[in-house]
Amino acid sequence: MKPPVFEYHRPASLTEAVDMLGGLENARLLAGGQSLMPMLAMRFAFPDHLIDLNRIPALAGIAEDGGTLRVGAMTRQRDLLDHPVVRARLPMLAEALEQVGHRQTRNRGTVGGSLCHLDPAAELVAVATALDAELEIAGPRGARTLPMAAFPLGFMTPALEPDELLTGLRFALPALPQGACFTEFARRHGDYAIVSAAAILWPRDGRIGRASITLGGVGPVPVRLEAAEAALAGQRADAESFAAAAACCGALDPMDDAQVPAWYRRRLAATLVRRALTTAWERADVR
Amino acid sequence: MSAEPVRTVAFGVNGETREATIPVRRTLGDVLRHDFGLTGTHLGCEHGVCGACTVLLDGRAVRACLMLAVQAEGHEIRTVEGLADAAGALHPLQQAFCDHHGLQCGFCTPGMLTTLVEFLADCPDPTAAQVRVAISGNLCRCTGYESIVAAVLDAAARMRAA
Amino acid sequence: MTGFPDTRVLGRDVPRKEDPALIRGRGRFVDDIHLPGMLHAAFVRSPHAHAAITAIDTAAARAMPGVRAVFTLKDLAPHLTDTRLVVAMPSPAYRLELHRPVLAHSEVVHVGEAVAMVVADDPYRAEDAAAAVDVQYDPLPAIADCVAALRPGAPTAHAGAASNLVAEMVVEYGAVEAAFAGAALRIQKRLLVHRGGSHSMECRGLVAVPDPIEDRLTVWNSTQMPHACKRMLCDLLDLRETQVRVVTPDVGGGFGPKLVIYPEEVAVPLAARLCNRPVKWIEDRREHFVSTTQERDQAWDVELATDADGRILGVRGVLVHDHGAWTARGLNVPQGAVAAMPLAYLVPAFRMTIKVAATNKVPVTPIRGAGQPQGVFAMERLLDEAAAALGLTRDEIRRRNLVPAERMPYATPMRTRGGIAVTLDSGDYPLCQRMALDAADWTGFPARRGGGGAVRRGIGLSNYVECTGRGPFEHVSVRVEPSGRIVVATGAAAMGQSTATMLAQVVAEQLGADLGRVDVVTGDTAAAPIGLGGSNSRQAVLAGSSAHAAAVRVKAKVLEVAGELLEVSAQDLEIVDGMVRVLGVPGGGVSLGEVARAAAGQAGFVLPGTSGPALAASEEVVIDAMTYANGSCVAEVEVDTGTGAVRVVHLVFAHDCGRALHPRIVEGQLMGGIAHGIGNALYEFMAFDENAQPLTTTLAEYLLVTATEMPKVTILHHESPTPLNPLGIKGVGEAGVIPIGAAIASAVEDALRDYGVRIDRLPLSPVDVLALLDQSTVLPST
Hints:
The complex is a heterotrimer of chains A (about 290), B (about 160) and C (about 775).
Chain A: E1 7-9, H1 14-23, E2 27-30, H2 36-41, E3 49-52, E4 62-65, E5 68-72, H3 77-82, H4 84-89, H5 91-97, H6 103-108, H7 111-117, H8 123-130, E6 134-139, E7 142-147, E8 152-154, E9 157-158, E10 165-172, E11 179-185, E12 195-204, E13 207-216, E14 223-224, H9 226-232, H10 239-247, H11 262-283
Parallel strand pairs in A: 1-3, 2-3
Antiparallel strand pairs in A: 4-5, 5-10, 6-7, 6-10, 8-9, 11-12, 12-13, 13-14
Helix pairs in contact in A: 5-8, 9-10, 10-11
Chain B: E1 6-13, E2 16-23, H1 28-35, E3 54-57, E4 60-63, E5 76-78, H2 92-99, H3 109-122, H4 128-134, H5 146-161
Parallel strand pairs in B: 1-5
Antiparallel strand pairs in B: 1-2, 3-4, 3-5
Helix pairs in contact in B: 2-5
Chain C: H1 19-23, E1 39-45, E2 51-57, H2 59-62, E3 67-71, H3 73-76, E4 84-85, E5 100-101, E6 107-108, E7 114-120, H4 123-132, E8 134-139, H5 146-149, E9 165-173, H6 176-181, E10 185-194, E11 205-211, E12 216-221, H7 226-237, E13 244-247, H8 264-275, E14 279-282, H9 285-291, E15 297-306, E16 312-324, H10 332-340, E17 350-358, H11 372-390, H12 394-399, E18 410-415, E19 421-424, H13 429-439, H14 445-449, E20 455-468, E21 476-480, E22 486-490, H15 499-510, E23 518-522, H16 539-566, E24 573-576, E25 579-582, E26 590-591, H17 592-600, E27 615-619, E28 627-640, E29 646-656, H18 663-683, E30 712-717, H19 740-751, E31 761-762, H20 766-775
Helix pairs in contact in C: 7-8, 10-11, 11-19, 15-16, 16-17, 18-19
């Protein structure tokens, strides 16, 4: 399990990185390496060129900017998890990050790397979708932004041109009172989730004003449970409403394999949606 | 691509600057072990799951199988060989592992220790549950982990008292 | 009653001799060995479960940079006395001879089988070149499932074989038919038990070093069986015994598979001789999943007969066992499974038919526990079912059947695979059960069970008796050197179980109690002329006994010679640390080193004492009968009916392994086994598809238990010293794993009792649990 031969490049600036990405044949970006390195070791990936993004200071860092939190793509998952604004204002993001791998992988793994790898079971992919993050993308034709919902084109396929790279993302800091919960079911602590659920409830007059429900692991890309979101709006926040929302999971069409069949993912999704909604409501300040 | 690209790389290892000219595809784990002779860092899976190869990169625990050695350029690496003090006295974690039978075959031990050095720096007074989470990325097939958890709690107490 | 009375180091938690090097990262594992000019081997492995090899083209690989050689079997055959590894332990039951080749040449029979070997300057380049070896395959039908393998018309694992039946045998005693005919209750069950790999954190590996000056070969090998490896190398490479040395460096865990002799262990040393350079091969984790032996599937069709009071009258049934594609060791896993089944209980009549099926998968050989967890699972599942049918509690039916303490030693009607009578030598099985029940607050459980929410709580119980200390002997020599150091050398092999500490304790107890003075050499064929190595929880029992006997002899010699030097009677002397002195008189005396110098003799002078030169003795204490350890396990679990997850809340393990030489090490061995048992019950599954393609080939897919999955564990000790060896000890290396699956299955079934489900298989994944709930026709009370 040793990586195959490749040429190694270490750009010092974003411009240099973009130039390399556009100019080199069969090149891949190396971010935290927590997914790419195993793929190289197993020889599932054969790039001719690796472009190491770890020496571009502008790509890393977290900054609060008015009502948003801007996170550089090369920010380590651990730094995002430890950030006081994340802890205070985006607790669901912290809750998700705590379940991303282990201390050693979060120390090295990057936010952008996880998003671009786009594993359907990845916590960051699900939670960025739930939080409606806005992605910043750079390329030879300039910079553009994209809502997270439009980023996954399909199974592990981000909406990036071959010469483009993700430079950062923005999370809107919540203005209205809300309760949120990210919960997942993994076989062991730190494993990829089989299914994850992120629920946000905005209370209004003691009832559910608006609901957001996002599921990971039930399809090639994160799924918004829109039917359930619509059904919950204006409802009382009780076991009956949450069970009805969970029942919407019956319509999901998840992947099916020998070890985790589709019916099981559907059942798990229903359980997690119910539990996430219950916890989110407990956390919502309804007074 | 068949020619083997190489680079000369220099980085700190346990307080000394080490330099080597190496193929760029060589992992940090392999360079520490084979080019620098620091065989205390073990490779148990080479795909980032078992944690045996964990080293400290500028004080943070990372998997040495998931980094290219060329990426360590200019950084400071600390391995199990660098945990004892200059006089050779064991780190309190090392001593506690011995006292609590926290190692049997010893293969996972270096990765456990490096992971825990960082963890105790962040969390000097942990609960047993926190210790379990801290080492959940380190596989051990011998101990069943209980003696390791006991060793960490003991080491943490000793370090707080020191 | 407990421990070793009046000892200085035996029975005490002394610091381990292994720790100072390992804790500093200064251990010497096989991959830590670096030699000038060393080459690296990589293997080309079959991607097919079953295929004919039609051509192998190595030209492109040979032409790659850094490549020194590429070998196929055709290249190696002229240098081998046999191209096969004939390693099967004897049995008259074989129907198929399945000796595997050093490299596959005409047919591959499992994914991962080695087809060619590349030798290159570095491991990266070796791997590059291995990918460039062009092997042409003609795929053949593969058989994955062991039960299907025995059906008429099933594809055969080996082309041209008459069938997949590797062996068939019957283990039988008593009047089975009569027992069932007259039974008040008969319980029948179909059970499926799967166990996975060993997954020592260190994979396999070896470094072979040719010495052209003396035409010798030294092999450092991460093996449990250095002497068997040497034998194989002498035989296959046609080398004299004086030409081959096999050494085990520090071994990063064994757990069974490293007792097998593998194709790489012949191919790599031969490559070293042919290249005339040191050659290293380190198995990577992916190779470990497809080339290191495993335990896998067993299908049990079993029946239990009892009288109206729940007393066992008989057990009968058929076990179908997945053997894999080759006979890499023997029939010992299914034999061990069946032998373990009745041992804890009075079972007057027993007949189990064992059918061993070839499949297109990695060969099966023992993993920690060696079939015994499966046998215990089968017996305990039957007892739970019988208890329910008779309206007895699960503890009561066991109490009525456990071999009572007053029957010890209890001569069972069984015999071991070697034909040796199975006599339960000591123990109080009902007491261990009671200890476990009390510590688990079994009677208080109903109050903890709680209501009928999404999370259901249950409790379960199991008993086991384990055969340990398989003989016939282990070699140990003890020598006091003129430096005063004590050298202990043995054929036993260490792989993390503290063997050096154990032997140092046994020897130091006799020779001054200073462990720092004792140097232990394990697993070196140059240091011990014979040895059986590490397996079967045998090393403390066999090597410990030999070490004790040798140390007692050396001590007598030390005292005799010292007595002569000091002009006092030997009976009035004692050894304390490095000094021999008059009993109870500190200061004075003579050092061990001085005694050793005197005993070494001088040309032309009379030796001191009457027992010859040198302070040395070798022993191979022969113990044919195995010693039987026992224990009871209670598991308390929570089952989440929303996810299917099972969480073990508390696990109580009450056991008896005779005297404990080092209580902390005993606990460590048990705890490791318990974690492995939890893995086997709930997490570890080596999956293959219907074409025998492995599906779990990374540690992200094959789930080993981590610290967060471990429950609270309570271990309780009872000591019934065995009369079979001088130290009164029994083996403990495998005990932990044996009853865990059975206890957890019992607990899960109890937790889900409102659903009326039966747990008839292991492991139990969350998917399995929800599937069982779905199939349940019983509506749960809420």
